[in-house]
Amino acid sequence: MDARSSGAATLLSALNEACEDFQRYGQQVAATHRSLHWELIGRFGPGEAPFALVGVVLRYERTTVDLGVDLWVREGAFEVSGYGTVDGRRLLVDLPDVLTEDIDVAIRTLREYTRRLCSYRSVLEDVA
User: Fold this and answer.
1) 42 has which bridge partners?
2) What is the pTM of this model?
3) 51-71 per-residue burial string, b: 16 or more CB within 10 A, e: under 16
4) HSE-up (13 A, CA, CB side) for residue 128
5) Which residues fall within 8 angstroms of residue 118, CB to CB, at 6 or more apart?
6) Who's near 53: CB < 8 A, 6+ residues apart?
């Protein structure tokens, strides 16, 4: 496997791990809030700026919380961002955008942002 193929395989593996982490997070939060509905987000988009989005949507009573990490490819660089919103409007978490040409930095950022968002255990108490 050449360096490009290896980098792509590592990136796809990291995205898969992030999906697994968000899935475990959704399950854990649902275990403590019985009336919670959660949904895993995993999307890939083509185009001039291909992207991947991984995360989770939590619906509790009348509140919807979205937590996720975006990874974009723009002009030969990776842009990684992490976020959390309440009801699609209020910003709960806004992690700084990281722009890098280094795939290893992009993967480390993806993993770190996923870890930080999935460690947010009191999310429903904070927004309710």
Assistant:
1) 54
2) 0.90
3) ebbbbbbbebeeebbbbbbbb
4) 10
5) 21, 22, 24, 25, 67
6) 41, 42, 43, 44, 45, 68, 69, 70, 71
- The CA distance from 112 to 118, in Å, is 10
E strand or H helix that includes residue 105: helix 103-118
Whose CA is closest to 64, among 93, 101, 89, 82? Answer: 89
Closest C-alpha among 33, 88, 22 to residue 60: 33
**Residue among 120, 128, 50 at smallest CA distance from 83:** 120
**Tens-place pLDDT, residues 76-102:** 899 999 999 999 888 888 999 999 999
What pLDDT score was predicted for residue 22? 97
pLDDT for the residue 68: 97
* Beta-strand runs (E) in the chain: 37-45, 51-60, 63-74, 77-86, 90-100
User: Is the distance from CB of 21 to CB of 42 less than 8 angstroms?
Assistant: no
Residue linked to tokens 């890098």: 100
Q: Which residues of the chain have pLDDT under 50?
A: none
